[in-house]
Amino acid sequence: MPVQTSRRPPSLEPGAPGRVPPIVPPQAGAGRRRGPGAPKKRAKRKDPLWARLTLIFGAVLMMTSGVAIVGAKAIIGQATSSIDQGNLLGEAGKTKAEGGKNLKGPIDMLLLGVDARERWAADDVRSDTIIILHIPASHDQAYLISIPRDTEVEIPGHGTNKINAAFFFGAQNGGGWEGGAQLMAKTIKQKTGIGFDGAAIINFGGFKSVIDALGTVRICVSSDVKSAHMSLVDGKPMWNADAKKTGKPRTAVVHKKGCKEMEGWEALDYARQRYSVAGGDYGRQQNQQQLIKAMAKKATENGMLTNPIKLNQLIQAAGKAFILDTGGVPIADFIFTLKGVTGNDLVTLRTNGGTYATNSNGRESLNDLSKEMFRAVKDDRLADFVVANPEVLSTRK
């Protein structure tokens, strides 16, 4: 399998004209709660390194070269003692021929967003956010590629369907969120050929507490967007279903065009919208990417990572938003392997040029350029592919 050298290609050296510009952009189960009624697994605790690690696998990549890892071994031992983990990959992990558990080569993570709510059953959830996080063998940059939720695929054992249904089918019959993630990973590997080093289930609902711990995040709205999910009752944001039960007057939540500091509920509600957003699901993907970028920036400014009190609040909040699978590799190994990747090295990419592509059946599919992009991920030549095809870069900032 082709592997990049330990340095970027000449065209990607810092300051070089061809270097991929940093652009950025994930969501369920909660720490040790894998979703309502989902099966419980091993638990493993949290400290600054876990905060960084958690957000790395959430596509935030908080780790910065300016923050020292002090007392590394002792801290990591304590930090990883209660991290929530599960088997999210099943048969989709990298084989020995693909690099196995060796982190010296490229690293590919599957990030699944589940926008679950407490009243929903664990086996009645679909993963509408599907992202592949690719870190080349040089370990100095990271890329995120969103797979459209309605992409038609062959789901092992369940025939042809939309890709987001793979999580639903896998969660049936006691599979829970782990079973959902395993079938999704298997479906994607069958579709793209990409094997995974690890995976994470990200709960966008859990992200609210992370943003609240950060304070606010700066989000730019490209055009007015009316929320399809929330209303204001007496000035308080509520789910429409809950707002209706109050019997009180409701005011529609409208996200106005322009840039502003958003609280957690507001930023997440905007990131959830697709019906009134230009580009539909593709627009939503870009808005979710923008949200994660904003979280990464906020987390690394104003001394957030060096303030013990703020950092502890962030750690506790982040621990409730993720379920993690490192493919059997010690978490400490991941931490040190990725320590050179910063938030500014995160590049977000889009499939199908940000618009719908259909197959002969009139169903959503991946166009030829997107298929080539996934082959570039598999062969670890994505940096060169992006330089040659800059149109795959996300335009939402």
UniProtKB/TrEMBL annotation:
Pfam families reported for this sequence: LytR_cpsA_psr
Listed transmembrane segments: 49-72
Keywords: Membrane, Transmembrane, Transmembrane helix
InterPro entries hit by this protein: LytR/CpsA/Psr_CW_biosynth, LytR_CpsA_psr
Membrane is among the record's keywords: yes
Biased composition (Basic residues): 31-45
Family, as annotated: Belongs to the LytR/CpsA/Psr (LCP) family.
Matching PANTHER family: POLYISOPRENYL-TEICHOIC ACID--PEPTIDOGLYCAN TEICHOIC ACID TRANSFERASE TAGU (PTHR33392)
Protein name per UniProt: Transcriptional attenuator, LytR family
Organism: Micromonospora eburnea
